[in-house]
Design a protein that fits this description.
CATH architecture: 6 Propeller
Largest sheet: 4 strands, antiparallel
Number of helices: 2
Order of helices and strands: HEEEEEEEEEEEEEEEEEEEEEEEEEEH
CATH class: Mainly Beta
CATH topology: Neuraminidase
CATH superfamily: TolB, C-terminal domain
Helix content: under 10%
Shape: globular
Strand order of the largest sheet: 3-2-1-26
Strand content: 35-45%
Length: 374
Amino acid sequence: MWFGSSRLKGPSDTRGCSRTRQVVQGPAALRIGSALVLLCMAILSCYEPTDPMLPAERQIRAIPVGRMAIISHLTGRGEVYVLGEDEELRQITNVAAIRKGTEFACVFEVALSPDGKWVAYSLRNPQYEGWGIYVASADGRGEQRRLTAGGFDRDPCWSPDSKMVAFERLDNQNESRADRIWVVNREEPDSEKLLAKLDREPFSVVRLAWSPNGGTIILERFDKPGEIGMLTHSLWSVDVGSGTVARIPIDAHSVGGPAWFPDGSHIVYCAVKTSHEQWKLYVSRPDGSEERLLLARAYSIEDPTVSPDGRYIAFTHEFGRAYSGKYRIGIYDIETELVREITSASNVSWESPSWGRSAAARHESEKRRSDQGD
């Protein structure tokens, strides 16, 4: 782990553009209007595209280690891809083939299993009601299976052994509209188990992250708008054994996008300390203590994910005009403090990176365990 190093003194570079989470900035009317624009853009993305896109080989560069699942609009629709160290980009989904009339399916969140073998993603399928969690092989082979049958299942994340998927289910069947966290076995769709029920204040789970030791799930939630109509975010922990939910005390105006380091000693997240600054990258202990500023740029940072070796953090940031809905992915090297873009400057959006191990690293780990067993 790199946190004993003096390299984490703080950021020094400020270049770039802006980010969607800026709905927390500016006058309340502008923030609410921007949020409505983003919602409309998401809805319109479920209808037939018209813009031509550039070839895949001109869009993305290799990652330094492991595999990464990404959502991209290379084909004009949001599809799930997996990128490896070999620079090969594999398309996993084909949502353009799922339609009802003029309405297409839409992919939202994606999560790569820690062993790098599986991809879980949430899909709005017009042939069904609402959203469901789907699972597919990260090699792009085999069937894509619908894992859950709820009406609003979102935000999948994997257990450390890559066997279970946790997800959010919004309960629309009662007045409380409570969020519930469920878990399901990857191979047994009928094995759904309720893990925790969250009150409606604050509301809406946004992202889940399962700890490497399997004992805790950290999640991001939207808080209710304050007196000036501002949506804020907060981090909460769920004890996997008891289902107990507790807020993580982080001193920030808004905080979100949690991800774990592989050894479980730290978490990384994006946060703003005031309502008029960009989202920056922070690291702390899982309980929120020993917080340190890791990276600040002229654009806002979101959706961090940590490489399997703990050295790199990939993140999403918006480019072009504010609230353009176009995103790139950058990688921050904790050891050298350098940031490099892995996506091109073209008019294609890349978002929601999720890191896992490569096949080679997985085989080496399995061989090491086998040799130790011998």
